[in-house]
Every structure is written in C-alpha cells, then in structure tokens.
Protein: NADPH-dependent 2,4-dienoyl-CoA reductase
Organism: Vitreoscilla stercoraria
Amino acid sequence: MPQALLGTPLPLHKHILRNRIIMGSMHTGFEEHAEGNEHLAAFYQARAEGGVALIITGGISPNEAGAVTEGGAKLTTDDEVKWHRLITDKVHEHDTKICMQILHTGRYAMSRQPVAPSAIQAPINPARPKALSTEEVKQTVQDYIRCAQLAQQAGYDGVEVMGSEGYLINQFIAQRTNQRDDEYGGSLENRHRFATEIVHGIRQTCGDDFIIIFRISVLDLVEHGSTWEDNLQLIQRIEHAGASIFNTGIGWHEARIPTIATMVPRAAFSNFTAKLKQASHLPVIATNRINMPDVAEQLLQDGIADAVCLARPMLADAQWSNKALAKRPESINTCIGCNQACLDHIFAGKLTSCLVNPFACHELQLIQKPAKNSKRIAVIGAGPAGLACAKTAAERGHHVTLFDAQSQIGGQLNIAKTVPGKQEFNETLRYFAHELSQLKVDVRLNAWADAAQLQDFDEIVLASGIHPRQVNIEGIDHPKVLSYLQVLRDKAHVGNKVIIIGSGGIGFDVAEFLSHQGEDSSQSPTLFQQEWQIDASLEQAGGLKSIEPQLTPSVRDITICQRKSGVVGRNLGKTTGWIHRLSLKEKGVNMLGGVTYLKIDDAGLHVQIGDQIQVLAADHIIICAGQESNRDLQDALNTLNKPVHIIGGADVATELDAKRAILSGTEVALAL
C-alpha cells in the first residue's frame, strides 16, 4: 500500500504547505460589502480550522475597470489594506497560508464600459469593450504589481494571478480576443508579454518569499484559443518570470461545454493537468470536480499533480480536509456539483451559500449552539428538509425520532439520484445516513406516523413533502398518462413515443432519464470528452475538435411541452440550464412552447399552438406540472396542543427545491 500523499507537506518557494489540499477561489458576494470582511474572515477561518493548507480568495481587481461589476471588489490603495488584514489574521491563527486572487475580468466585466485587448464583444456580455491603448496596458501591468504589493502589506502569503477562464490575461494570450498590432499583440511572444510582465513585476517587487500562483488555461474550449504548443511556450515564460506554482484552468466562461456541473465526471480533465505536470518545472495543482479524498489521492499517486484544489467542496464541508486526512470520507458532506446556491446565486447578485450546507458563507448568521433544554422532537418525513432538521436538532442535543413511510431515507432525493448525471445525490444520502447513525437519531422507516404516536413528543416537525400536481385536461385519467413519480420512482414501462407536460427541472430530468441509453458519460471522462468534442491531444486551437457536441441520440422520440411561449426551460438554473437544454437538443429531444392542452385520448395529446390545432401522437404522456404540499396530518397534529413546525415541500410546494428544503429544516432545528 503506497504512502498516502494528501497529508504530506509541500515545499512552495520559501513556504511549507502542511498538506496538499488547497481551497480554490470562489466569489461569495461579501467582497463588495463594507463589513464583508467580517463574514469572509469567519468563512475562511472555518476552512482553516478544517485543515486546509492554503486558501485562495475570491477575485479582487487590480483597478476599477477590472472589477466584476461597477463598484466591485478591488485593492488599489493603502486605505483598502486594513479591510483585508482581518481575513489574513484569522486564517493565520490555524497554520494555513492564504493567497489573494488578482482578477481583472476584462471584457467579462458587467459594467457600462469594459476594457479588453481588442474591441471584441463577449457573447455573455451585452457591452462591447474598449480596446486598451499601449500605455493603458502598461499601466494595467503596474496596477497588478501594485495590487500584489498591497496584498503583501495586508498579510497575504502570496497571490494567484488569474490567467485563465477567459479573463483579461487569457484575452491577451488568445488570438480569439487579441487582434492588436503593438508589442502586446500579433506574435505568440507578444501575446504572452502581458502575463509575463505581470508575474515578473510581482516577483521583483514582492521578493522571493512571496507565493505567486499562476492559473493557466490548459484547455480554453473555445475557437481560436491556445494550442498545446502555445501553452508550452507560456509555461516556460511564466516559470522564467518567477511564478511559484501553476494552478490548472479549464474552459472559458463563454465556452459551451460543461466543466464543473454535476454531469461532468469526477476529475474529468486530469489528463490535461498531467500534460501540464510533464511540461512544468514548477509544482502543479489539479482542479475541477475533485470532491472526494479517493479522487484527490489518486491524482497525487499517479503523478498527475503535486496538490489538489477544491472550491465548492469546501463550501459543502468546512471540515473536508480534516476528515480526508483522518480517513473518514463517510463523514464528508459531499459537493454534488449542482451550482444552485453558489454560482447561480452569484450570477443573480445574491450571496453565495451551498445546497447541502446552508451554513456556508453564513457563519455569522446561522449559529449552532447547544440546546438550553433537551427536548423530544418528532420529525415526520425523511426527505431533504426532514433529514437536515433531524441532524441539526440532534447535534444540538435534542432526542430526535424521524418517521418516514418509505423504506429508505431521502424522499425526492431518491428520485433525483436515478437521473443520469445526478448520481452525486447518493453521496448526500450516504452523508445523512452516517450522521443520523452517529447522532443516534431513532429512524423509523415504513412508518406512518399518526397523532396517537406523537403524544409523548415535546415538539413536532412536519416535513411530509409533496405529491405531483394533477392538471385539468380532458382525458387525464387515460391509461397513456403517467406521473413523473411512476416513471422515476416506480420505473413504470414507458413506450417509444413520449410527450412530457411541464418544462421545469422535473420535466428535464424525466427527459434525460428516458432519453438515455448505454454508458453514462457522467461516469466516464473518456466518453465525456468524446461526446463534447474535446481534443485530448490539444493539437486543435482551444482544444476543440468541433463546436458541435456529438451526444448519443435519444433512445425515444421525446417532446417537452410548456404553456409559456419562448425558450423552453428558461427558468432552469443560470449556470446549468443551458447545459440541460443543449444536451437534450443534441440528443434530438423536441421542445414546444406556447402550448394549450385540449384533451388526451387514444390518438395522443390534442393541443393548440398559435392558431393551429394538432394531435401529438404518444405512447405515453408524462405529467411534470408541479407539486402540491402533503399536509394530511396537519389537522390531527393541531389537536395535540404542541408546537408544530412545517418545513420543506410541506410548507411551500414549488418546483422541487432541495436547497430551500435543507435550509428550512436547518433553520427550524436551530430554533428548537
């Protein structure tokens, strides 16, 4: 058995990292708040206490033009240094290093006038950027150097220079976005000049004991991006300029290929990190969909990387590092790659959190303290809301009994885990099962709780979930009609020609489930790269064989219908909805908007679209038209004259929402 490497120290310039686990950069939203440093200090301190060796902060701009939004986070003056000192001091209390990421967003800036190497508009930004003059480029280099110098004064052990994901440095490097004819454009050496001058200037100014991480885009995933031969020259130049270590960047934000969502296999891009490792004289960090210790350890054992970088997994579990190093993976609250409370929140202007861990980024708002009086608590329903409530209440010292009518815990999570690409929900169920066992929660399955059984409890939490909403269509009782529960949970037979009524997350999940055949690409990096036309050799510019994915066609003829006009599935998650829409489209799934449902009969589903009445032939019609709360027990509970708390779907039966369910269960448990 080879020696475990994850816990071994890593020499880094004149620093020693206590292990090989690095917390990656994530924007939280607190960076823009006057008192956000207090929240960030608590957030990062919890991860430092959790055993991580090095933390990389969310991106801080070197000037006003580079901020994510107008008025966004920057470090440009001595007056701003004090704001950061609280963060670095708290982290250093726990033998953890911390580096500030310097991020200039370039043409991605959500401002009235972004700047860029050339005036080429980004497809994800409505504003066309202004091309920087040569003097402005030189000043921006100095802004980076000044920002790093201020970071050093603020107590940071180093900086990460963000050179990937399609941000400003990446925009200078790639021909796609650099059409300059001065010393910063044209030849590859000139296009690399901006990055090398920044790294060299930081090293000269901040000294040899300052960590400089360079996040390099080894795989752009956009047309006219870098080739591997281009990257080889950039690696040499950045090494010579004085970097300490390379971090791996995968994909530009405008790329139409998923890179961190749950349908992406674990360590899906490790072969590209391996190429970087083979070419580099510096240590190399692996990133992207590394969420469990066995994956991380294998990357180190195989010599693919010298360290691993985990961002969202540190949201999901602040103690990830300690648990991994103690060989307790069963106790890790695993990141499922859903993006619902992290990236989706940021793109909507909200604060970051985590679906499976609502305490993330809310360490000063959600405070868990031992209960003053230990109570007997009954939780009815072992879905996500009930599980979160039972776990948190038991952690606080309450005696908890958890009832569920099904034979296993999980509720709607047991449906989600059956959908190809959503197998990570198994980890959430594993985590809750382990925690309930450790906390000695009395779990009673196949148990229909009634008022008589609940008389001896002090308080009752009703987490009885939802049931599918029935729609008012003539012929709804026809044998062709199935509910999504019959399909996903009960595995009812479904014919070859299928109509899905409803285009929310459930409708898309059913379509994904029914369209799938053969090997699941979310479990195979090789198949995933083949389907999304990723060039493993990196001979093609940007690492793309084609901009059109080649997904396995659907095994069934499927049509998704929605009443609203416009894009079908528009309300899916900001950062993952486009993936689901594109994936099903490439599989040949039809999508119809503006549909009025008339009736169902042997011929199929009769509809009106615009002024046209037509019949959509179908073997089966599957109803995915929302949910209603299960509150059958509520009236009986009210007769007990005990406090009754209603949470999750039993409280609000909107689109299946594990994020809201887990948060509501946690909040009620904290108040018991």
Summary: Residues 552 and 587 are 6 Å apart (CA to CA). The first strand starts at residue 10 and ends at 12. The domain at 470-517+552-625 is CATH 3.50.50.60 (FAD/NAD(P)-binding domain).
